[in-house]
Please model this.
Amino acid sequence: MKNYSNFVEKLRSAGLRPTKQRLKICEVLFDRKETFHFNVEDLKKILKKKLETSISVATVYNTINAFKSKGYIKEISLNTDKTYFDTNVTSHHHFYNVTTGELIDFHDKDVEEIKLKKNLPGKKIKSIEVLVKIANK
Amino acid sequence: MKNYSNFVEKLRSAGLRPTKQRLKICEVLFDRKETFHFNVEDLKKILKKKLETSISVATVYNTINAFKSKGYIKEISLNTDKTYFDTNVTSHHHFYNVTTGELIDFHDKDVEEIKLKKNLPGKKIKSIEVLVKIANK
DNA sequence: TCAATATATTAGAATGATTCTAAACTATTT
DNA sequence: AAATAGTTTAGAATCATTCTAATATATTGA
Model:
């Protein structure tokens, strides 16, 4: 039964009950070597292929939102019609290929440190993210 | 009649006919000292206040899209339900206050140059934008 | 200036992503 | 195993945005 027990553990530790649906979604999102970028439509398609029975739209959204608020995934700030998520929750940056819609991670180590010369009194910085838009030549 | 003639000029040079609606929207967007951040809902509200007759939703969207494709405004990459635009079309960055939803510009000169150590062969860089999420202390 | 043509505006319908609802179900606790 | 708390579901509702096709306005060129 795969590494379901890891996922059970993971869900429990975040106060989420390990249900069939959540475990299935965990498997799609986290049982991979590479970071996974997706939107809800992608995810629904993959789940449909993997499963006999399908998971309702509402559940997919509920689950994704739960995972997001527990910090298992994060939303990517991109201006597209659909919301994109990333299974890489560490502080990192993106290349967005405007020609193909492809999204590629890059990490703090791939950029020289970003030093702000402007600072805002009374505020605290939550995150600094760089979006590099690229196009095919 | 204000600086309508500037706007007429501006529209014409981009191949857009200077119509009543477009001029009115120009006035709201560009007749100001500071950069203006807005979404379509904001814009509709402002127009409603300023005008006797109101402009239809479709026209507001058409106009905004025309302005965007002519480079008069640009879309901001933020993950919110609505699409945000900025009258500052130069390359610049944003602070987004997650507590208040407020958006603040900052410029290239307010950050030390962003040097990418990773490069992608066969691609060209269209833009590099930094989004700094902040919160009230 | 006037008719012909090209482009814009409009109200309302259509679309599509996301959230809500309330009923049925499943997991946990006692 | 009964009671309670949390989940899932189908389908309805919502809300931003786009489409449609009819009407109106702007531009062109005789």
